[in-house]
């Protein structure tokens, strides 16, 4: 027997970084909306410790400068910045060739080009902020189905071994790139397999990173080292994203930690001295996943459920965040104009506004893979000339910097959160 839960206005399937950020933004911008988050993992006091102790093996996310501005608007940046390592410099190079380009934050009048933050710390900051809002949670629980109704949607939720129903105006699917709910609702995805895996780990080097992010293109695939650890001191820890073919991944995983460091040294070089430690390794297949139509009456896809990118340019979460704020703007418009949240006039406009951003970001990330994946001498020469050109031509360099900083597209405006907007800060 299906049991009815208290109805709501908006149901968010998934309480990870995307779902929790959307819930917080709605609480800040459209506080009159009743928002319910359905999350498969249990919430408990143990999940919100008083003191956060960063782990060496913590997974992390690259945050563009534009994402910092959004989190400032939401009143969350002062907390996030406690454990967010700034990126002052970006160095892009082509292994074994002369092409290289460099970006420096001070050249663009910013205190940082971006940041690197532990996923667990970001989740903890979001949960602490959400506890002070009226957002309600169903956890552990999962959305298992949805049907449209004259007034919106009726969502089926499985909780404690029983099925419940929850009615609202709209369902937002935010349960990640492997969303089973997306498939069940009949959304058609386009998937392009790069034939590669991303190996993720934290590494230590003999030389400090000096708050520099390295993007290194090699004949075996791109790799990135992002500054990690203290937000104030340039330490010796970096977050590694290492692109490997399927066969190369198996070989690397079979190596000892010492031999992994030696292999990494061969691919990356000596810009940070000797690799002295590599932590727990995670890996996942690399695919470009897009959805032609990310909205339908009463339902919208966001985050990785709507698009998953190659991590080469660190744009995935930043693109998702901009999309979330675009959706919040449309929900605010719906409330102001008295339109149902799930109306296609609202969701279709969200898709239209966000589409240009994700198309440009996908093109930017995908083109880097294709351009730097070519080893033919004429193409390699043209590629190196292009990198040198980026380094020498101010206009081209500004364009590249805007892409890297997440400020090159449409900038969403959250005008109604002045009460929680943080004062401008200058990091040191």
Architecture blueprint of SSEs:
Elements: E1 3-4, E2 10-13, H1 17-29, E3 35-38, E4 60-64, H2 65-73, H3 77-80, E5 84-87, E6 89-94, E7 100-104, E8 114-118, H4 119-131, E9 136-138, E10 142-149, E11 152-159, E12 162-168, E13 170-173, H5 180-184, E14 189-205, E15 212-218, E16 221-227, E17 237-245, H6 246-253, H7 257-268, E18 275-278, E19 282-291, E20 295-296, E21 299-301, E22 307-308, H8 316-337, H9 344-372, H10 377-392, H11 394-405
Parallel strand pairs: 1-12, 2-3, 2-13, 3-9, 6-15, 13-21
Antiparallel strand pairs: 4-8, 5-8, 6-7, 10-11, 11-12, 14-17, 14-18, 14-19, 15-16, 16-17, 19-22, 20-21
Please characterize this protein's 3D structure:
The protein has one domain: 3-Layer(bba) Sandwich (FAD/NAD(P)-binding domain), CATH 3.50.50.60. It has helices spanning 17-29, 65-73, 77-80, 119-131, 180-184, 246-253, 257-268, 316-337, 344-372, 377-392, 394-405, and strands spanning 3-4, 10-13, 35-38, 60-64, 84-87, 89-94, 100-104, 114-118, 136-138, 142-149, 152-159, 162-168, 170-173, 189-205, 212-218, 221-227, 237-245, 275-278, 282-291, 295-296, 299-301, 307-308. Helix 10 crosses helix 11 (394-405). The protein has 11 helices and 22 strands. The protein is α/β, with parallel strands linked by helices. The strands form 4 sheets. Strands 6, 7, 14, 15, 16, 17, 18, 19 and 22 form a 9-stranded mixed β-sheet that branches. Strands 9-3-2-13-21-20 form a 6-stranded mixed β-sheet, with helices on one face. Strands 1-12-11-10 form a 4-stranded mixed β-sheet, with no helix packed on it. Residues 7-336 form the FAD-binding domain. Belongs to the UbiH/COQ6 family. GO terms for molecular function: 2-octaprenyl-6-methoxyphenol hydroxylase activity; FAD binding.
